[in-house]
């Protein structure tokens, strides 16, 4: 049963591109903007009848828990409810639990019984005499008896697997919900790309599992659906199609088109640091399918056969792909051409007006930041300027000093590869960074060729003097000319 909605997502204004990347230097509020956009992909729901309770289980976010955590939560529930002393058989107990069923659906596993059996075996306590496999992995929390029943060691669970208790408590709270309960459903997933992220995690791949029927530790393999595939299926469910994505792709084209219109609820995948991943490697052949004109339900829709499962696959028209990109990590000019063609890029630069009211002991923080960034642009480029978000929570000289000492200065060191002369130019004076001459006795002889070497040191006390910050933006024009000259050299 579908719960009644108070504030349906389709009534909210979502008037931006299906594929969008927010890009800019660090600290310009990209991730903050992402969190605001998430509000457009939520539904406020009411439980009007007991039949609506099933929808509440979406609140568990079961996909964020591992199979071992789910198994432990199920057995912990049995222990807390004193069902058979906390002992459950696999086929007549564990697999009948709602948490197992939810995890099976969300994981996309074709052999969930075998998967959870493997998990139980591999996380059994080391001294369990009824499980004899070659390899076990921590946490060692499960026990098996002579009746082939399973339990979890509740005494060590809080230390070894606290996520299981967290899941159990959420489950128990939902199980006790009454008619009239309100809650918010999130129609999105959030991930962060990294250099080793690949197609297997994003779309689908093959992962090894132990054969649950063979306790000798034999390995079999199963196809695992990635987070993008899961998002596509979740988006399709919002269109009121209740089957699998692979089955939807087998429908006639005119039938598929009936499920998508302007009132179809929207789903989103938010990708932080999208430029840190290898886009060609992650998306593979699917990069073409994300184009609006190639989505399922569009006139020019395209479907492909996935390499591992051999299933038909397409991207639903109601799935938004929204990412962030830090230009200090990689210039937009260096981005994969295929990605640049298929995304709308929204620039986010420092907003000095946001800091207009941030005056710390006569220090105009907005004006100071603007001056710093103008110098960075002369000496480097605008992609490496500094965002206003670093100073949003600055309220006094002490917090300003901490921001400069622990965030701004290390960032400048990274930008200019410890070229202290340029860093001093950016800061407009030598107040924070002092020249340091080596001791005469440091080298005994043969030092003629290093006599001109200049060393620098950071004056930590200088960060607590307001005059040093005023000097940053009250510099003379000659200092700006000096910065230009340094850049030319």
UniProtKB/TrEMBL annotation:
Coiled-coil region(s): none
Pfam family, one: AAA_5
Molecular-function GO terms, alphabetical: ATP binding; ATP hydrolysis activity
Superkingdom assignment: Bacteria
Residue span(s) of domain ATPase dynein-related AAA: 233-343
Protein's UniProt name: AAA domain-containing protein
Species the sequence originates in: Campylobacter concisus
